[in-house]
Amino acid sequence: MKEKTITIPYEIKMADSFVTRLKGLMFRREPIKNEGLWIIPCNSVHMFFMNFSIDVVLLNKQNEVVKVYHNLQPWRATKPVKSAYSTLELPAGSINQFGIHIGSIIHC
């Protein structure tokens, strides 16, 4: 059975250098809205120095969802996911809003 491809209708910024991956969304004052951050490579995230919650979607190299975290709170961290290659950080509630689940294919 072919999984449904989900297109994220937000402006997605790429974090693919050491500096952009390290900074991520840290120190932003306001929650993200209608935007996201795609961190490549990345198989876990931390929420240190974050001021708001986000949804986190971990993807393999084929952009298939391998793990999701709903409403990840500031000062939390995820365990590394061996099968994950990249991480998509989205506004809290996006996973439910777009029907994202393990096995979905994400297009940004």
Automatic annotation (TrEMBL):
InterPro entries registered for this protein in UniProt: DUF192, Saro_0823-like_sf
Gene3D superfamilies membership: Protein of unknown function DUF192
Organism, scientific name: Neobacillus rhizosphaerae
Stored Pfam families: DUF192
Domain of life: Bacteria
Protein name as catalogued: DUF192 domain-containing protein
